[in-house]
Amino acid sequence: xxxxxxxxxxxxxxxxxxxxxxxxxxxxxxxxxxxxxxxxxxxxxxxxxxxxxxxxxxxxxxxxxxxxxxxxxxxxxxxxxxxxxxxxxxxxxxxxxxxxxxxxxxxxxxxxxxxxxxxxxxxxxxxxxxxxxxxxxxxxxxxxxxxxxxxxxxxxxxxxxxxxxxxxxxxxxxxxxxxxxxxxxxxxxxxxxxxxxxxxxxxxxxxxxxxxxxxxxxxxxxxxxxxxxxxxxxxxxxxxxxxxxxxxxxxxxxxxxxxxxxxxxxxxxxxxxxxxxxxxxxxxxxxxxxxxxxxxxxxxxxxxxxxxxxxxxxxxxxxxxxxxxxxxxxxxxxxxxxxxxxxxxxxxxxxxxxxxxxxxxxxxxxxxxxxxxxxxxxxxxxxxxxxxxxxxxxxxxxxxxxxxxxxxxxxxxxxxxxxxxxxxxxxxxxxxxxxxxxxxxxxxxxxxxxxxxxxxxxxxxxxxxxxxxxxxxxxxxxxxxxxxxxxxxxxxxxxxxxxxxxxxxxxxxxxxxxxxxxxxxxxxxxxxxxxxxxxxxxxxxxxxxxxxxxxxxxxxxxxxxxxxxxxxxxxxxxxxxxxxxxxxxxxxxxxxxxxxxxxxxxxxxxxxxxxxxxxxxxxxxxxxxxxxxxxxxxxxxxxxxxxxxxxxxxxxxxxxxxxxxxxxxxxxxxxxxxxxxxxxxxxxxxxxxxxxxxxxxxxxxxxxxxxxxxxxxxxxxxxxxxxxxxxxxxxxxxxxxxxxxxxxxxxxxxxxxxxxxxxxxxxxxxxxxxxxxxxxxxxxxxxxxxxxxxxxxxxxxxxxxxxxxxxxxxxxxxxxxxxxxxxxxxxxxxxxxxxxxxxxxxxxxxxxxxxxxxxxxxxxxxxxxxxxxxxxxxxxx
RNA sequence: GCCCCGGUGGUGAAAUUGGUAGACACACCGGACUUAAAAUCCGUUGGCCGCAAGGCCGUGCCGGUUCGAUUCCGGCCCGGGGCACCA
Length: 877
Known about the structure:
It is globular and about 105 Å long. The chain is an alpha+beta fold. The structure holds one RNA strand.
């Protein structure tokens, strides 16, 4: 055994051993693991080139879970794969004139090496990459099945066009009116494309996320719920006879609106339509002023973020529609706050009971008619704002036959009357849109369709799948290179056999991540996308990934699963039973600002900090030139702030165990983690101490554990055993609730306890020590698998620590004849007293009252004495 | 604007969900070892008062419930995230 801890040697040896025995290959129904399967999976990485700290954190959490559960008898699966399609590869291709395929495959190779250097328990036999035909063939197969069932359909629609990336984005990919990757202002374009009917599943997706996913974090459930955005109300029409250019009534003579407050319908004093609404277009024909206003609205609507704060503006169209229940003529306005994309692009205006309508009516002097009062309140003294939002107390008033009805009654009555007129019905509206999956991009799954001059758009027959994406293209920034790839384009029409052209659009890469975690379960499955093995592993027991995927990926994957269920491919409703969203990794930032205000960011590794006597940072100097830089605060590690720490460099300097230990120790998995160079040093110092301690005690270790039963009679022995088992108990609890930072604390505490134990040289002491180290190494193993693997061997413990049984708390070790109880007087800590463990309440009370240190706080007889068993005594005076 | 999640020493954090606040670390300071430095080891470290024994205060702020509140309730302040003219 080496005297000094050498991470490089230790990790090389451990990793070679794992490789030699194929340690992490998971087999269905493996008899070695009696507790059954546990599928713990991380969100698959994009192969950007190298690992970042977010990956390290993600996979370490996954790995700790794996090792803990395996030692507890579970058949654990931890797979890995590559989100290998997507735009960065195209951008890199343009920059370096290399095909995306080549760039991607070499990145995968490099990142895989880095993962191996972390000592992760990955079953590589299940590795997948989204850009491999054997994978994306099944995207195409699902596409065709969904097309056949009408779950995918083609339509020409207004789409978000990203002018920098030259592609269409889903609504979800547009953030504040800008492309989620490029940051470019999004334009509207009309493009034919394929949509998936996720809205058909909106109700079920909402129901499960609201009520049936207890293993998901509350905030993710709320985010999804908001995203789906269910509203219940009534959709109804205002009849009219406004005719268009063709002489026919526009919209069949009906102006449809949607409202969640049909109980206020008698208070309508105007209608407002979106700038894009047919009535607006019609009215503008001979009205240049309105034309200009509509143009202004369309311009403004590009930047959604500004819309919320934008002033409510409108203009009358001069057109009138008929109120369906009163017959009154209602003027139609164009309003800049009405969205063409929601409902029917038109709203009824009830200024008395809607904040926006109220502001609008005030501004343009439109009538305000109150038709709601609060329960128990007079009609006259109710101000609209106070109870508009609270449907539970509103009563209809000033509305003829509806007077006196509460919300639910009014909705029913109004809906029934509108239905009788054939003008409306109850309706549920969602914020969620159908998912546009076509992308005008090269590096993705080809959409398996063929355009034939005679037959039109024809699906590729299943037998001809996969439609293989050529891997030799180099995009040049002028659109999709497939459009120039004759060998790809050229094909025969499956229907008529005549020469035809292939569709060149590819699928959104979110399709790839919809089901990859199921493909892991069925590697090599050629006859179907997943096989019987999927039934064994899925649904996934634990999914781990970043909060940034709380809506998009997780919603699409849930949708996809439900479609697969419909096709009989899976038997469950939801793919992910438990979800852990790990926190971001942060680091300090340093910058200099030039005269023009442009900031240059410096990597923390190149900056020297000076601190005051409390250790607070005072100033920062760039190592290179010794001149000061500004301290910019702690932010998410990113390229743009140049505050990333390279995991490879950390592993090189300290070893993987140190990197793992630090990332687990610094904060709980779900919280943000602040990088700290000295914290890493501390983690490394701990592992060096572990090694030195094991080295020093090696001669005393009796790995057989034979002497233990007779041992532990001395006070020091008992105390040590008690401490160790107590800490183990706590650590077990923390492992179960995935609070790994305190598990590391527990390891540190154990080492401290063993080091300071005052043991003699007896065989009994040696036995206690042997037990202690065996517990300690196994507890530390999930976090630091390499050093514990080697020490387990060096100290002569039996077998491979990987499959050692998890240490069990010995209740006998925890037993104490005497316990210390705290004494409070009026809730304030005043002293403590040792009492026999078996002491009854009266005895404890007496002992507490007799305690000298507390007596001076007690005058006369105590009013009351509260005894909390095993904890404390509170004396109330 | 609405909806979430946070706020605890100089710093990261803990407190098994109402029972000893600050575990475990980092940093700082002091000491040992060393010719010296690094490494290592030992010790102090929430604030205030006090020579000390000890006392008082203390988990963003103000109240409340309770024998007892970081934890529960009400109202504010601050930070982070999500949604945002959604009818």
